[in-house]
Design brief:
Elements (H helix, E strand, L loop, with lengths): L5 E3 L1 H8 L3 H8 L5 E3 H13 L3 H14 L1 E3 L3 H17 L5 H12 L3 E4 L12 E3 L1
Parallel strand pairs: 1-4, 2-3, 4-5
Helix pairs in contact: 1-2, 3-4, 5-6
Length: 130
């Protein structure tokens, strides 16, 4: 994963948390994990609803300390609008949070590292399927 900068999707981070060795090795090669604020929200939601709430909140809190977190701004909203409209016209909607994550990736010219296949529907999104 070296050379390019990557935005990590939520499912990649969850794999890291659950001890996926392959994902862990790839993430260790990164200078600092880059994530969307939306992804952090999804991680906190998952921790809050977990039966092991304390353990998972600790994982998220520790992960946040080493991350670069990209916020949503006006530029992100414009990319989001274009993506959502293009997908609507194709009849291929995807989850709202994934639209925001994709918009963040495109805005910052990052490769989106994900396991989700539906991202292939988004034009101009550089993907790394893991």
């Amino acid at each position: 994963m070296s050379g390019k900068k990557y935005l990590l999707d939520t499912n990649i981070i969850i794999d890291l948390f659950t001890g996926n060795q392959d994902i862990g090795q790839q993430i260790k090669q990164l200078e600092a994990p880059i994530v969307s604020a939306i992804t952090i929200g999804e991680l906190y939601f998952g921790a809050e609803k977990s039966q092991q709430r304390s353990k998972h909140l600790k994982q998220v809190n520790e992960f946040v300390e080493i991350c670069t977190i990209l916020d949503i701004d006006l530029a992100t909203t414009k990319v989001y609008g274009k993506i959502k409209n293009a997908l609507k016209m194709k009849g291929r909607p995807i989850h709202e949070n994934d639209l925001w994550i994709a918009a963040t990736s495109i805005q910052h010219n990052l490769v989106l590292a994900t396991k989700d296949k539906h991202f292939i529907e988004i034009e101009n999104l550089d993907l790394k399927q893991m």
